[in-house]
Structures are given as C-alpha cells and as structure tokens.
Inverse folding.
C-alpha cells in the first residue's frame, strides 16, 4: 500500500460533510477517529496500545466516506480504489467470471488488494474485528460492509499479523462505523454512461436514535443496481487486441481486431487437399463461400479482421444488491457496556461468458442439413468442421451471494484496565448458476443429423432401437451457417447447472490493556489478546467433473478413451464438510523512553508478539517492533519491522478437483487447442512467511499553516509463498520445453502424438515475493479568495514486484500490465489528486485526477517483443463533481467521471491469441466504462 503512510495527516482534510474544513489542521501523523479535531484519545488501527494517532509508528491512511463519495459517488468499495495503494484490487470490470476460482467463484467480488501482492494477503476489518470470509478462497467481498453507516476507512501499510493475526501480510483495511449516529439520512442517485449503457441506481436510508441515557440503536438499508456492460464489442478502443508469437524465435506482437480464422461464425469445412470445398465457409445459411482472410501473422492462425470468429464476453458485470444492518448498544453499568449487531447482504452478479467453440468436430457428409450439391464434392465419408457457435445466448453466469453476519460483545474497565470480549459469526452462501452450459452428449447426438422416415432431419441416435427412448426429444442441430440452428435445437444442447458453496466462521476475541508502569517520559501501555476461530466449508453441485457422457450410438464427437467424455463444458465439484480451527495469543506494548529533551520531543518504542496454532498447518510465531520519534513539533520519524504469516486456506488444502476449458496455446508446437485444465488442491501446503520493514517521515511545518507532508519507504519479502502454478503459463511451458524440469512438465499432459491432452493447475509453496516502494502524501487546507480550499495528493512508487520460483526466470510484475495466475496491472507510479473548493456559499466543486505511468506487457525477462509492441502507454482520467446545498439538510450533486472520455490503451497477456474478445484487453486498473454521468441527492436530518 504505497500511500498509506501519508494518510495520517489526511483525516482533517476530509473531515467535512459538504465544504472544505477550516484551514487549521489538527494532526498530520495519524488518523483522527471522528470529525472532531478535539477527539485525540483514540485507539489507532494497527495497534492496541497506541492511544493517540500522533504516536503511531505504523503508516496509516485515513479517508472519510464523505470525501470518497464527493469525488466518486458509487459503492464505497469501488470509490476507495481511487487510492493508489489499491492497484490490483478487483471489481465489476475485472474480467468477470463465475467459472474460475478468483474471488472464490465470483470474479466480480469487491476484493481489497494492498500493494498488489494478492487480496488474500490483505486483512479486512470492521471496527477492528476480522470480517468473516465470504468465499471459499478466504477472500472477503467487501460489499458486505454496511456502507451507509461507515464514517471512515483506515488503511494500514505493512504487516500487522502480530496485532491482528494471519493474513495481515501486506496490511489492513479497517472500516470504522459511526456507532453514535443519531437522526435520519438518505441518499439516492442514478447514472448512465455517455454510450447509454451501464445504468446504475442507488438508494440508501439510515436512522439512529439514543434510547434513554445509556442505549443507542441504528439501522440502515441500501439498494444498489448496476446494469453492467454485457459485450466487450461495445467499446471500440478494446479492439480485441491479443498477443501472438512465441517471444523467442518469433517476437511477441500485438494483433488488433483479432479473429480466429479456423472458426468463423458460419462454420468452415476441412475435407482434405483433394476436396474442392476445403477451407470454404458458410458466409450465409447453407451457402459456401471462399474464406475471406484478414491480415495474417507469422506463427499464428489468428488474424486481424477477415471472416474469422471471436468471443464477446461481458466487459463489466451487472450487480443487484440489497443490504440491511442494525446495531444496538447499551451501558450495563458505569464500567461495562454491551452491543449486538446483525447484517445481511444479498447480492447477485451476472456476466456473460464464452460462445461455444466447435473445434475439429467430425460430421458425416450425408448430414441431413448439408445441401446435396456439397455432399457430392466431399470425397470421404466424414469431414472436419470448425465454428464459433454464437447462436445461443452465450454462457450466462450468475453468482448469487447471501452473506450474513452477527456479532456481539462487551467492553469495560476494571482496576484501571480496559477490556473487551467479542464474538462474530459469518455465514456466506454462494450459489452459482450457469445457463447455456454445453452438454457434450446432447451436442454429439444433435450434430449427427440424418433424414428420418418422414423426410425431415432427426438425430441418428433416436433411430437406433437401443437409444431411441433416450433421444426421443433430441433436436438435430444445423450448424451450416451463421444463424442456421433452430431455437429448439439450441435449447436442446444446453443445460442449466447450479452449485452451492457455504462458508461459515465463528470468531471469539478478547483483549485487555493497561498501563502497568511509567517511565520518566510517560506511562507505558501493555495489551494482552487472544482469539479462537473456526471456519467450515461445504459445497454441492448438479454439474460435476465426474459426470461422463454415454457414447452408445453416438457415432462422432464422443470420447470413450481416457476416462471418457466429460458430460458438461463447465463443472463444479462438490466438497464434503471440511473445517479449520485456529488458536492465537498475543502481547503488545508501547514504552515511552524520552520526552522534551533536545531533538527528542518524544520517543516511544512499540512491540508485539503472537503465537498462532492451526489444526491444519501447525504453529507459527509472528512479531512486530517499531518506533515513533517526534523530533520537534514540525518533524516526526517512524519505523517498523515485522514477521507475518498467511496460512493456506481450506480451498488451497482440500478443494475438490475442478475443470475449466479454454483455447490454450501450446508454445512447443505453436498451436492452440480447446482442452481442459484440471485445478487441484494441495494438502501438503504450509504457511507463508512475510518480513516487512517501513521507515518514514511526517512533516508539518508551523510556518506553512494547513500544509502537511509524509513520505514512507517499505520493503516486503514473502518466503514460502503459495504460488498457483499453471501448465498453461508461458514460463511453465518454457521451463519444461527447454530444461525438462520435472515439476513443470508434470503440469502439461500430452497424448501419444505429442499434442496436449490437458493442463494442470496446483498451489505449491514454491515462490518468494519481493517488493518495495515509497508512499508520498501531501495535504493542504486553506482559503483562496476568502473561500475554503482543500488539496490532497497521493503518490505510490512501486518499481518491482518479483515472483521468484526455482528453475524459471524471475517474473517481475512491477511496471507490468499483465501476468499469469490472476496477476493484475502494477504501474510503478500511481498518482491520485483531489481538490475541493467552495467558490461561493452553498456550492462545492470537487475534482479527482488519477494517473498511472506506461507499463510493459510482460514481466518475463526472457521474452522479446517486436518493436513498439511491448508497452502500454500511460493513462489518466479526470472527474468532476458539482454539489449544491439546497438547504441545511439537503445536497444535490452532478458528477461526471472521466469527463474527457479517455480510452484505455489496449493490450493483452502473452499467449492470448487463441482467445480474442475473452480475457484482459486492458490494464485492470483502467476505466473501461468511459465518460459517466451521475445525479443524486443526500439528505441529513
């Protein structure tokens, strides 16, 4: 998280509802807990012993929800990603899919990813308590947070596993609720893009009331709708750019407007060199035409333009969400208080996946739909046929999540000590529904069309006595043309399948803190804490990899060898009930050593140690040490060093085998083929170990009233890192092809002819991850022409993110746009600037500027690109918000995101030439929607 360190000074800048604050900045070194500059005695995120934000050795960035919504009026989880530290986070436009494992089966889940080393290495908290996971990959979909009652978000950089436990390797995102909210507030907004798509609607209501002298109740409801963008072809700039070549003998090159020459939408015949029809395609139904070639490239059958087919997946997922939240707290006595809360998030993401790729299917020349004139010209009994079959509604993927959270606890004081006990229960159910999921058995039957007794086409299997009953409802499929198939036949070959995955977590935490002694510089603080949690997972599915096709009387396109033909194109394996339990104990201390001496206005040391015991992977110790050195009232230095862990998830350890299909490129042969990838788990995994160092300076010059600056350096080294190793990855294939590394070759399974039969993907404790960078943040609050102005600038410099694996070149994702295994864009420079100004009373103007530098296409140092093909240009956007106070209780605003409609530069992952229009095509951090208009109103009473 590159900017986190600076944010300590940022809270006062954003401590306003509708207008910039007064010029005075109360603190520049750590977060304020509320909008009141006088509230200084608060527990700082990242520590249980630091009570004043000025004393925190850990870099923390603070942003208020009002500030975020002013510049980006969308969901909190989306708007917070304007912070440079969140490069690599996922959302609705992050290559949406429900058939992969990214996001725990929902690739559009709101995933917080600090410093782009993985969302599973970022810990998400709410009011300092661990948020239960919402997926089987242990990732939290942050949309579960009750956003309307969140008053600020604290972003902690650096590892804090010793304070919060496993997973806090790259940092913590802590959502702080307004537990004292009283009154009523409401907000409503609607938006649409300049291209008249991606409609949105948001409605939120919240009410809070003090009950008597000792109790408080608050409740909120939110509805959010986002129509998404269901076709990538809706954006001309995307242009289906893919990468061809092999990176060595044929340098990689970009292919714009990519098409698959072998698979046109109308279908293409292959019938041998002596066949007059060989290579022709059905440009119109039932009529063959010479194939129209586009621009061809050496070493690739993918062309630019021409009559070839292509995919057209969703560009942005749709969303529909209802969320309810309620909290009650009361004072049981003068020294003890209690609370209970409950929340429910009911969210559906929808996205469209691949059309069906018919690759190398076998058809009989006497097929009932093939015109007789063509039958006579085919010299053999069968011929091969290829087609991008897009006559269905595409694979429709729907991820329906129900996320429930219940919590309660007590806190109080006893003999000068502060204590708390909390319990949290999370119950997450993800139902994944796939419509238009291809059934291979039905496809095989429907493709074999013969002339029936009454002269009309029927399925061959329905004419055979042994299978007549089983295929009585079979509808023969006409594939000879771009729209030749009947709706009934299309409906027949597709099924609807469903899987249900349930993740539950119970978490009990307790802590006590006190000042047991004092030094001459002040009181020391010590905290003891403990935690127990248990996580369980179970899943069911009606479309599993173990289901195979019955090939009886299916003459063609049904595999009987090697375990048989998988029944369905997309499958989910069921999982038995699996569980994991964790015990943790920790101690933390802050000891002041110097105060009010020359060059030492204050000097404190902090330390923490924790022992964590998993019943799956054993025990681990973590620790953290830091210092806070306040040289004078203007200048402060801080630093930390820590040892952190991330344990493998239940999914990493025990997930059942799943299968995914795509048109993968075999680098060894230079060919692309539609083959399966088997995704395995690994019960032998152990925990990752992270080591983090930070050093920073905070400067708030007394002679520059309203100005503050913070600069922090960090270095993270993760050893024993869990790497998901894919046989499809270019570096894996290269290590096998050139060095015959057994581990990597075992992930590429070939048949007797040397062609790839299938690939394997498996997590292994194989990697080391190294990264470093600098966070810079500057803030200013003052007046221009007598009117309040606030400025905030955040810069994140992260030149390298190295993934080191044995026997393969080190992959450096720093300054790189694309990577295998879900690695997303990692610009080395990420800048965010915010301006808020009131030129007249009741009118506020907010401007947001975001920019990233140019990036390389690949982080593999061994590959080469053709000149001008290996980089993506820099990219930036400007957004404008104009808000008017209608009265003291109401604000009306108009917001324009990406006001200049800046189009992202196209690009893609190496080896992507076989999947035009399917994946990537743009850097994940770029704006794919374009100019977007939102109008809304906020009410507070």
């Amino acid at each position: 998280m590159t900017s986190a360190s600076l944010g300590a000074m940022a809270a006062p800048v954003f401590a306003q509802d509708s207008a910039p604050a007064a010029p005075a900045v109360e603190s520049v070194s750590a977060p304020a807990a509320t909008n009141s500059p006088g509230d200084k005695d608060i527990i700082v995120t990242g520590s249980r012993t630091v009570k004043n934000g000025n004393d925190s050795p850990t870099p923390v960035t603070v942003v208020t929800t009002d500030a975020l919504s002013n510049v980006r009026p969308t969901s909190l989880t989306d708007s917070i990603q304007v912070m440079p530290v969140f490069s690599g986070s996922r959302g609705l436009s992050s290559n949406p899919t429900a058939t992969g494992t990214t996001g725990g089966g929902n690739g559009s889940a709101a995933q917080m990813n600090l410093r782009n080393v993985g969302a599973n290495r970022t810990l998400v908290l709410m009011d300092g308590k661990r948020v239960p996971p919402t997926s089987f990959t242990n990732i939290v979909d942050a949309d579960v947070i009750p956003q309307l009652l969140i008053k600020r978000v604290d972003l902690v950089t650096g590892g804090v596993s010793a304070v919060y436990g496993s997973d806090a390797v790259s940092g913590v995102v802590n959502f702080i609720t307004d537990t004292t909210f009283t009154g009523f507030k409401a907000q409503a907004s609607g938006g649409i893009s300049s291209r008249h798509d991606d409609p949105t609607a948001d409605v939120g209501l919240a009410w809070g009331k003090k009950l008597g002298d000792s109790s408080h109740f608050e409740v909120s409801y939110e509805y959010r709708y986002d129509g998404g963008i269901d076709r990538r072809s809706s954006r001309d700039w995307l242009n289906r750019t893919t990468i061809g070549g092999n990176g060595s003998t044929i340098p990689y090159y970009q292919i714009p407007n990519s098409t698959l020459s072998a698979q046109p939408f109308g279908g293409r015949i292959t019938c041998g060199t002596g066949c007059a029809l060989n290579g022709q395609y059905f440009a119109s139904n039932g009529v063959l035409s010479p194939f129209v070639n586009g621009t061809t490239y050496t070493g690739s059958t993918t062309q630019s333009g021409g009559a070839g087919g292509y995919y057209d997946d969703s560009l942005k997922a749709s969303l529909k969400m209802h969320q309810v939240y309620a909290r009650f707290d009361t004072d049981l006595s003068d020294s003890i208080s209690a609370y209970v809360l409950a929340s429910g998030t009911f969210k559906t993401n929808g996205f469209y996946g691949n059309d069906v790729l018919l690759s190398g299917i076998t058809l009989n020349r006497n097929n009932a739909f093939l015109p007789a004139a063509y039958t006579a010209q085919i010299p053999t009994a069968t011929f091969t046929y290829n087609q991008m079959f897009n006559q269905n509604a595409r694979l429709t993927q729907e991820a329906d999540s129900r996320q429930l959270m219940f919590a309660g606890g007590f806190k109080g004081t006893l003999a000068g000590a502060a204590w708390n006990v909390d319990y949290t229960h999370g119950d997450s159910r993800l139902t994944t529904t796939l419509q238009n999921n291809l059934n291979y058995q039905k496809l095989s039957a429907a493709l074999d069309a013969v002339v029936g007794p009454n002269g009309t086409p029927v399925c061959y299997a329905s004419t055979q006595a042994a299978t007549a009953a089983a295929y009585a409802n079979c509808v023969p499929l006409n594939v000879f043309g771009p729209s030749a198939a009947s709706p009934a036949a299309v409906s027949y070959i597709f099924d609807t399948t469903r899987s249900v995955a349930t993740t539950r977590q119970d978490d009990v935490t307790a802590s006590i803190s006190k000042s047991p002694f004092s030094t001459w510089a002040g009181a020391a603080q010590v905290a003891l804490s403990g935690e127990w949690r248990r996580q369980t997972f179970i899943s069911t599915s009606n479309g599993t990899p173990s289901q195979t096709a019955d090939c009886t009387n299916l003459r063609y396109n049904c595999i009987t060898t090697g375990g048989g033909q998988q029944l369905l194109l997309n499958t989910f394996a069921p999982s038995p009930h699996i569980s994991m339990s964790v015990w943790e104990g920790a101690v933390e201390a802050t000891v002041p050593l110097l105060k009010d001496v020359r060059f030492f206005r204050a000097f404190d040391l902090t330390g923490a140690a924790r022992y964590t015991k998993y019943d799956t992977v054993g025990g681990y110790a973590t620790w953290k040490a830091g210092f806070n050195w306040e040289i004078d009232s203007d200048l402060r230095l801080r630093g930390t060093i820590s040892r952190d862990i991330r344990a493998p998830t239940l999914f990493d350890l025990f997930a059942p085998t799943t299968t995914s299909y795509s048109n993968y490129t075999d680098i060894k042969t230079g060919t692309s083929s539609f083959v399966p990838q088997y995704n395995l788990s690994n019960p032998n995994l152990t925990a990752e170990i992270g080591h983090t160092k930070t050093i920073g300076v905070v400067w708030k010059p007394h002679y520059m009233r309203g100005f503050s600056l913070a600069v922090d350096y960090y270095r993270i080294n993760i050893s024993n890192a869990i790497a998901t190793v894919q046989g499809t990855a270019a570096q894996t294939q290269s290590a096998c092809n050139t060095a015959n590394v057994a581990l990597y070759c075992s992930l590429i399974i070939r048949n007797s002819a040397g062609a790839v039969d299938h690939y394997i993907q498996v997590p292994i404790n194989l990697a080391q991850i190294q990264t470093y960078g600098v966070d810079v943040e500057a803030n200013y609050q003052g007046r221009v022409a007598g009117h309040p102005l606030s400025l905030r600038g955040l810069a994140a410099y992260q030149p390298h993110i190295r993934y080191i694996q044995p026997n393969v070149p080190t992959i450096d994702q720093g300054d790189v746009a694309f990577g295998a295994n879900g690695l997303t864009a990692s610009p080395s420079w990420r800048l965010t600037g915010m301006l808020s100004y009131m030129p007249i009373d009741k009118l506020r103007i907010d401007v947001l500027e975001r920019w990233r530098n140019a990036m390389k296409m690949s982080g593999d140092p061994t590959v080469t690109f053709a000149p001008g093909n290996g980089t993506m240009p820099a990219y930036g956007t400007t957004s404008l918000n104009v808000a008017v106070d209608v009265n003291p209780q109401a604000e009306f605003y108009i917001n324009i995101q990406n006001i200049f409609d800046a189009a992202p530069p196209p690009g893609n992952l190496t080896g992507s030439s076989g999947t035009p229009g399917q994946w990537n095509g743009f850097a994940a951090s770029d704006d794919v929607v374009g100019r977007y208009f939102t109008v809304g109103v906020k009410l507070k009473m």
Observations:
- Residues 1-43 have pLDDT under 50 and may be disordered.
